[in-house]
Amino acid sequence: MVFSSLIQKIMTQKIILTGMASKLSGRKEMEIDNVTSLTKLEQILLNKIPGLEDYKYSFAVDGNLIRGDDSIDEKCHILVFNPFSGG
Length: 87
Hints:
The protein is α+β, with helices and mostly antiparallel strands and 87 residues long. It is built from 2 helices and 5 strands, in the order βαβαβββ. The chain has helices at 19-25, 38-48, and strands at residues 12-17, 29-33, 58-61, 64-66, 78-81.
């Protein structure tokens, strides 16, 4: 029997936390398995970081701002940060 077809590929993403995400979690980084979309990442972070839902935050993947339900590749860098404001 071939077991490789029964084993789901696990994709671990390294998430860099800054601002309130870092403060609330008490960490600067975390690893999350099988993050394939921004929607899924947000759901996981809200479950893992109590109080995060009370703050605004943004995401960047490989240095590019992402929004909505953008997909997330296996080998990328993900940053969670407070949104910018300017004037």
